[in-house]
Structure formats: structure tokens, C-alpha cells
Predict the structure of Histidinol-phosphatase.
Amino acid sequence: MKLFDNHNHSQFSFDGKRTSIRESALSAFEKGLSGICFTDHCDFFVPPMKAMHEDLASEVFDVEAQQQETDRVNAEFHSLRTAEGDPFRIFKGIEIGVQKSCREQIRKHLSTHCFDQIIASVHYLDDTDPFYGGYYEGKDWKTAYGHYLETLYEEMVWLGKDFDIMGHYDYVARYAPYPKSSIFYRDFSDIFDAMLKFLAQEGKALEINTKTYKDYNGRIPVLDTDILKRFREFGGEAVSLGSDSHDAGRTGDDFMKYVQIIKNAGFKYSAHFESRKLCMTAV
């Protein structure tokens, strides 16, 4: 079975200093993956509350340096072969943090560089950072989750052709303070229908981000399979697996568990992108 980890961070991300392209790529190969893509963080605006903690005005990585290092490691690993006898692949990507206030910068940046794949994610909204808790202040769970989903959908529609994978739609549930730790289709059916229909019609991939479904302060979000099934009903076929790793040990984390979930939901393939072209491999 050919599996690709499509969401990883390296030493070029502001928060990826615990690993390197070489270390994470080698880990992915040793775990039997067919390839790995490095989608380092790119956010043009950091909320003041986060800037105070990390002394960052932006989180824009050096694309040229990242891609040169990817080429170097690809060359070093050129003789590595997967279980199927294929060359192990290392892809060049970006996780673009979509924010309405930065649209002009985002469009220019994506048009300036070439990537294998582009993940569109929301990390910050309303000048707040969910990780540090500010986003949730004054909101109940339904308002907080719903507004996040609506923001992600709005920015994806604006990006249009300039992205390939919708990243961690349930990121907002990871660090939330509510007993309601998961996002379910039944609670947000209207926005999910709009979002999933858009992805299916445009040939975009829905990401299963395995980092989301981990214990954080005693809360473990779960993946709602009704979301996968609804995506399938709209004609969606592209489901992307991503570990969202920031250290080499987490590449490909829990992939076999979620491959079975994908299959049970009626999907026959997992998706990755090469030179922005959708590639499907049987699961």
C-alpha cells in the first residue's frame, strides 16, 4: 500500500526546530511510507497575544532554502526504494495560513514560488490565537466552532485554484476549553455542506490531520465519519493524510487506523499532489 504523509514541518518552520527535512524523511521511509511532503508554516500576520509569547511579527519561511534542502536530501536518498520498489519521494509544499487581511500578500507569495502542494489552513482569526486561548473568550462552543468553519470556507473560496488541500478543519477543537471536544456534522450541517460540496466540485482534498485526535489537557477530539460520508455523497474522492509532525517520530502517526476509517466511509484511494496535480493511490 502506498501512503504519503502530506503535512509535515521541518527546521524551516518557526516551530519545527525539533527536526529536519532529512530526519523526518528518513523516519517516514523507515516506517514504510512511500513519500513525505514538507508543508512549512507561512502566516503573514501573527496576533499580538502570540507575538508576546514568541516574539514573532510573521511566520514566513525561506522557500528557496527549504526547497534547496529538499533537493539535497532527495539526491542523498536517491537509492532508497519503497516496499513496492518505487523511489522514496520527498515533496515541496507550504501550509499557507489564510487570513482576510493578508490576501494580497498570500496571492503574491503563492504566485512567486512553485510547490508540489498547498495546504490552506486557518491558525489565527479575529486577531486572536486559539492555541493561546484568546479566540474562545466570550464565545460558547457552537459560536467558536461555527465561526472558525465559516472563516475557513470563506478563505478557501477566495483562494480558488491556489490551494490543493483543506487543512485541519477541526483545528479549532484541539485547544478549546469546552467539554464539547469534537466537531460533528450534525451541529454544522449547512456550513459543512457548502464546504464539502466546494471541495468535491473543485477537485480539492479533505485532510485527515491525525495530530488533532490526540490528548490535549485531557480532551481527545474524534473524527466524525459523517463528514467523510457527506464528502463522498457530494462526489468527493480526494482524502489526504497528514501527521502535522514537528518531530521525526510523529511522521505517519496512526495512518493505518485512519486508512481503515477512509475505507469504511467508502473511499478507495488516498490523495497526494505532485507539481499541484492530484495523484490517487489505492488504500
